[in-house]
Records
---
Amino acid sequence: MSVFAGLVAHELRLALRQGADTALVLGFFVLAVVLFPLGVGPEPQLLQAIGPGILWTAALLAALLSLDRLFRTDYEDGSLELIALSSLPLEFAVLAKCLAHWLAAGLPLVVASPFLALLLGIDPQAIPILALSLLLGTPGLSLVGGIAAGLTLGARRQGILLPLLVLPLYVPPLIFGAAASEGAARADLLLLAAYSLAALALAPWAAAAALRQALE
Amino acid sequence: MSPSGAAFLTPEPDLVGDALACRRGERLVFEGLSFRLPAGGALVVAGANGSGKSSLLRIVASFLAPAGGRLLWGSNPVADDLALYRARLDYVGHLDAVKPALSAREMLRFWAALRGAGRAAPVDKALAAFALDGLADWPCRWLSAGQRRRLALARLCLARLPVWLLDEPFAALDGDNQRRLESAIETHRAAGGRVMLATHQPVALAGADSLSLGDFAPRPR
């Protein structure tokens, strides 16, 4: 267990030292959201209607932006070999890295979302639900992204391959997340939680198998 | 927990490679390769570029499954309890695993934590063994290639695991540091540790066995 905590702390320390990475994800999220009103016009009713969808789409793309680094730097600099030899099973190492990824790249999006929702003129009463939907769904994004990040290790065009693999898998949370703030929130939030829990159960095994393949 | 320390006092079984074969892609790299590495032993793996030195070390490190043959700890196949086998291994490959944003001390603390050594790990001693004390708190991005290599090698002095697998450990090391590594290896062997290293350079290790990979190149058919 202490090895797990040590790995999470190490990943967070790295994320903190290279603060630019987190800032980049957050900056992309804000910019992507701000671009929509410029594109579709500043009509309050239209923005209010599509606002949750915009926020969720931007959150997916922002999460995607940092995924390729999840295992790649460790793979390229040899850290993955050391992690594979440690007493921590590779499945738990994947879990530790996904947890750190969520804390560094997912949680800031959740925290920033209420402010951006206000910017889009979303009904203030719907904002807590929207933030909650992101809180429930983003861990699933990090975990499912972990599978794709593992599978594309060593591929020459990882930057292109990764979104192609992972975006179809991000469709369910996008649908439930955007729908959550339009009434009948309970069912959508439960489905988002189910998506994240299913990812928690499956992703570490799938990603660890991919990493073992990459280590050969 | 880890099979170091007290376990060294009782005679440990040999690490045995039995008719190992290695395939990379379509190409058979070597076949019928056997070796025996007893406690306190050293095995120097030599061979031309591409003869499979690194692949052999990756097989022994359990990253790569052999295309044929088995790896045994005494008479038990290591595949039976891979976690126990891995807990005995320390591996320094071509890559240094050094993060530019962290300091040498932080790197060693992290590596110690990975091996479950935690706070008890002799980080300062490991730094001193490769003359890195003066650089301990600098971000590793300022370290030269040789200094990074020394930091990766200093890892070996942290947990004192019984089997060291070293892939070209002398690359980028100057004369003084080559001798530091040789003396670290001799100390390790005197305590019952064993080492397997791949290198082009002549090494001064007393009583080391050597393994020439050219002898196991697949015969043309």
---
Amino acid sequence: MAHPADRFLQLGTLDALAGGASPIHRLDPRAKVLAVAGLVVAVASFGRFEVAALLPYALFPAVLLTLGAIPGGYILRRMLAALPFVLALGLLNPVLDRAPMLQLGPVTVSAGWLSLASILVRFALTVGTALLLVATTPFHQVCMALEKLGLPRVFALQLAFLYRYAFVLAAETARLVRARSLRAFGRRLSLGEFTGLAGGLLLRTWDRAQRIHTAMLARAFTGDFQPREPLAWNSRDTLFTLGWLGLFAALRWARLPQLLGQLAGGAQ
Amino acid sequence: MHMADALISPEIGGLLWLVSGAALVRSARAVAAEPGGARTPLTGVLGAFVFAVQMLNFAIPGTGSSGHLGGAMLLAVLLGPHAALLTMASVLVVQAFFFADGGLLALGCNIFNLGVLPVFLAYPLVYRPLAGAQGRRRGPAAFAAAVAGLALGAVAVALETRFSGISALPLRAFLMALVPIHLAIGLVEGAATLALLRFLAQARPELFHGPRTSWRAVTLVAVLALAAGGVLSWAASRNPDGLEWAVAKVAGTLPSAGGTVHAGLDRAQKGAALLPEYGFRDRGAAEPTRLETSLSGVVGGALTLALVAGAALLLKRRRSA
């Protein structure tokens, strides 16, 4: 598996996508954050053998994807990168829980397979939606939205700074690693060498952070977000938030697939 | 190890969201109240450093494997516990959002296991007493605290998994598997932390100014953790079916200092609280009605997906038109 910072270097595409100008991009970030939180809570609240009732929630990521003009293949690849870990934990379920649970014609599905399917659907919904949120919203706007929604300001700023400088430091570390590997003839990094490299990196980082802080103070930084365009909530955002949250709640109570299935069964 | 969404129930996930949220709010207040204002630019860039330094994989002597620095104890020694918690939590949030490490529901657990425990238990209880007044034994103390922090995290992962009731693994077997591995990981983390602190003490001794520990925060976290653990184990031993009830009770009485977001999430979850059935043991034979309706459920599921795909196609066509 790639390491976090290597993976950070691959985030450039996501960051570029977030700068788009679709109707989804133009929504207030607070509306998107609230809708995503609503989806995660709704999906998490279902029983662990539930599969069919979760499927209608796919409408939300599908709308973000299409209206936001995000390439689906890219999101899919990023989701697949995180899949092995989920599978490793979920694959135990069919082994541990063999009680029959579902009859599909001649095939009996055990509870373990059902809960594995449920885990995979939940994974696809929550991870896909989280990725789509950051693909349609610049991360500093997500941080501003979180701060407006009650996250402590210091922590929201911390997130924004981390994201901004992770790209810088990941690139610097990649140069460091490449320079060493060119001179090391395949020898693995020893703890002593690690200390020198990481220590040097830490000292440069510390100094860089002090310079940044001083420069920001000189430009009237007061420990607050100072966006070029302040967030502006309008009726479109209200409609988006209430509409989706209402739909999620309705889907929690009324089981659309069950209804559709019964309708289809009745028509036969 | 990152706790994963697949392993935890909404109740445990929500409870740990509340505990971690309360700790974060407290730390944010403490950091904002520091003389000279918050050092957010410094801690933010150091959070980016934690990402970057994990690219540097060093060989572990005597084994074929390699390790990297986690960073919680290093940050606690350099920045003090409050700023260290904010920094670790920000790293975990970015990991959950962009890389799906752990997941959004498990984020509270992960901030607790990998942030709150090392920074508010291992740091004050192991590092501070061992380091000495002038920080003369800073390196060895950080080493011991790093090991303790990771072991605590492993125990927490096992307990959270057990009380979620999703995995059928027995607690003892899980503990026996997790704790030794994390002691080994802790030794590597400790060695890297020790080496880096030595390097920094030689290269830049003025970095260490010895921030004071907040004993009030320590007590708060310890009491919260003990209370949660105590109530849970009491309920589990007395009344195996009453776990949901116990969690709901604890979640209801905890101070919701997590601010409006957490309180809102909690309310939303309670509003939708048809507590789903857990536990492999409790489930009886599947009722016949369930088997009858399940086929229609599958057909309906397929229809739903077709509808979603159709809606997406329509939207796409309208956009390109």
